[in-house]
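Private note to self, pasted from the team thread so I don't lose it. Backbone tokens:
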């Protein structure tokens, strides 16, 4: 691969939904390696760790998903669920059922995807799962991930946890007050919790102290043409609720392919609660009343995610007391 200049690296990072730094770090190097592979370049199969990764795997998952085979999230990783979907496809077209995507399977895929399309099965499954769980928070499992080891971010998580517990939700935090698990450990913990939703709380940082505001991120990849429907919906809700209830600058919602969003099986979002490099944002999050406002915004956004359209309310108008008085917790 020819050497890339900073502009090319930035362009690649932008196109892949990565943090745009202009530097080839470990995450960017892995993405560059994945981008080398096109469907048909190699045979794909389930391997012992490390699993096969690449744009060819993502293309395979997308094609199978379009035809209604359940690969789960299109993440470009050839795991057990993808192997099962390949076997189901092979069985449906009458070729050797071995779970390996070799020449015969690829030829069958290319022939059929021209004439068969299931719409957006993954999006429909995500939405159906959300609807089937009902509006009450009492049967929801929410994982809160206070990123890093910042005490103020952890306090926001505790305030949110308390409000969710009062409404009957099951809540898990990925860390305690003094420990700081790795990102891989936090993802594994969330997946083992069978969560309905994972919310990662974060403070951003920048070399210029004038950078400020709140932003929310959900899993999405323009390169692979996929995104989390529920994740995007919740990101929009929580971004609007935070901006309606605080004076943080609105830095909008964004699709990213960060591992935390990509590898967490439940719909996941990361919320930047301001910039640690901004004196104004630090002053805000240092105030208990501000952290209370953030916690209330998070809980209301979670509840709105599960409400039917006819039961929803305008942004910034619901209060937690409204949820209790309406009996919605049950």
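Design output:
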């Amino acid at each position: 691969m020819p050497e890339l200049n900073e502009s090319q690296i930035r362009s690649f990072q932008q196109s892949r939904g990565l943090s745009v730094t202009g530097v080839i770090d470990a995450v960017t190097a892995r993405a560059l390696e994945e981008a080398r592979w096109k469907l048909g370049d190699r045979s794909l199969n389930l391997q012992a760790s490390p699993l096969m990764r690449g744009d060819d795997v993502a293309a395979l998952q997308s094609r199978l998903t379009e035809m209604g085979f359940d690969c789960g999230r299109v993440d470009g990783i050839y795991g057990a669920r993808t192997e099962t979907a390949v076997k189901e496809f092979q069985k449906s077209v009458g070729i050797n059922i071995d779970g390996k995507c070799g020449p015969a399977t690829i030829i069958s895929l290319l022939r059929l995807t021209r004439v068969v399309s299931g719409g957006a099965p993954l999006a429909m499954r995500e939405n159906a799962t959300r609807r089937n769980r009902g509006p009450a928070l009492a049967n929801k499992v929410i994982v809160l991930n206070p990123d890093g080891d910042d005490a103020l971010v952890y306090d926001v998580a505790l305030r949110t946890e308390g409000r969710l517990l009062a409404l009957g939700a099951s809540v898990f935090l990925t860390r305690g007050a003094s420990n700081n698990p790795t990102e891989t450990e936090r993802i594994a913990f969330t997946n083992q919790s069978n969560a309905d939703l994972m919310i990662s709380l974060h403070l951003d940082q920048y070399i210029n102290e004038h950078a400020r505001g709140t932003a929310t991120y959900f899993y999405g990849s323009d390169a692979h043409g996929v995104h989390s429907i529920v994740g995007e919906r919740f990101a929009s809700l929580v971004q609007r609720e935070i901006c309606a209830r605080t004076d943080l600058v609105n830095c909008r919602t964004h699709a990213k392919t960060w591992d935390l969003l990509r590898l967490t099986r439940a719909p996941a979002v990361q919320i930047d609660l301001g910039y640690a490099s901004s004196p104004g944002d630090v002053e805000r999050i240092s105030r208990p009343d501000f952290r209370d406002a953030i916690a209330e915004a998070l809980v209301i956004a979670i509840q709105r995610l599960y409400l039917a359209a006819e039961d929803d309310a305008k942004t910034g108008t619901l209060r937690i007391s409204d949820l209790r008085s309406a009996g919605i917790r049950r």
